Amino acid sequence: MSLNEVKPARTDEESAPAVPYYWKSVDWDGLMRDYPPPPHFQQTTGKMSDQELRALQNARFLARMDDAWRTPFYDTRWRAAGIEPGDIRGLDDIEKLPTFTSDDLKEAIAAAPPFGSHQPVTAEDLAGTPFKVHTSGGTTGFPRLTLFDPVALEVQAIQTARALWAQGTRPGDAVQITYTLAMANAGYCGLYACLHWLGAMPVTTGSGVVTPSERQLEYALKIGTTAWYGRAEYLARLVQVANETGFDLRSLKTKRLHSFLGPDVDGHLRGQLEEAWGCPVYDNYGTHEIGQIAFECEAKDGKHISEDTVYLETADVETGAVLPAGERGNLVVTSLHRSTPPIIRYDLRDLLVAYERSECSCGLCTRKLSMFLGRSDEMVKLRGTNVYPMACQSAVTADPRATGEFLCVVAYSGEGLSRRESMTVRVEKKSDEIDDAAFAADMEAALHRDLSVRVAVEIVPPASLLPLTQVGSTGKSRRLLDLRQNGK
Ligand SMILES: [Zn+2]
């Protein structure tokens, strides 16, 4: 059959469904005005006056309230709290709205599967708008599904592009992304940030599971990778692989690492990475639903918040009362750009400090966030003392025999009246040659000092903990395994 004989596909416009083309589904100029990517961000929403910003946040908050009232999830919860449409006139009233947690979202999904009563989409909605589905890195059960429409996808990419730019990445850089492009959104934040909003070349190697670590280093060498975007634990793993295989990391063209350091309060992890890679390491913060909302700039003096995309509060862990700026509490977030699903007063149970707005030496004027300080729902009461598993991190990363991976296992020990809670910290060693007994004794002493309570230490083989601790993708590894529910 020659080409001339091929009949064109039938183009019956009456019966063919209209395709919601991605490139037509966004008002791109409007998006750039509303959520400016770099370098415009630096001149616009990244340096507004307090009054201008408050007015912008207020208008977006009220629009998101309208979206939320249309969902059974918010409508039911708010009416149960005695709130009617129109009662909330702006951000000054936000504290009247109840907060919710990921447990509430799980219930909403169980009640209206698969997406939940907070994101009620019909088959027509799915056919009329190009949606992407992502999952959270939940610690138990089936992962939580979240829909991303084009605005949600592009704004989280713009948030990430702002971060990469503030940390020095520019058009022409090659950014190696070591988050796997699968169900979690972190990898896509990096990919779309580079491709759509920076003109930097994404090198999407994914994690060591999909591209072996030795090959990752070869790609970096051959392509000339200038920046990396990935989990701190994996960037540390690459150091280990380089050492084992005699690969000189300094032979690469790496100029910076864009990472998620987690609660590296004393800077051990950052220091180790910077020493090994020979370049600065920048910290970022984000979560599944609200994207990468906070980023360090080259000043490394707290993390700038993309305040045109998110409104932040911090709340007392015990009472839920909103705290003044500068005090550590649970981060409560309201997305200012998401319509599906609307996110209004989501208590993430991430412990952080949010500071007042201030001018930074980089030129931005924003509120700033502290380091991620741990999960408040991982707090354990051990013999009357509150213990946060994240408080183990400094001691673990400070010891050169440790890979940095650890897991606190809480269980009951003993029987009857002598039964009590005990915590064992599993610490991963760097190599099999290390003396377990001496290492464990030193770790026990260091942890006793940091936690103010005595815990047992179990030294475990290299690379044995990652399957248990790697649940998310943004530096918020699981550090607690609670076996008490089983009565064991
Ligand atoms: Zn700055």
UniProtKB/TrEMBL annotation:
Please give one Pfam family short name. Answer: AMP-binding_C_2
What highest taxon heads this organism's lineage?
A: Bacteria
Describe the location of the AMP-dependent ligase C-terminal domain by residue ranges. Answer: 384-484
What Gene3D superfamilies would the database entry show?
Answer: 3.30.300.30, N-terminal domain of ligase-like (3.40.50.12780)
The protein in question is named: AMP-dependent ligase C-terminal domain-containing protein
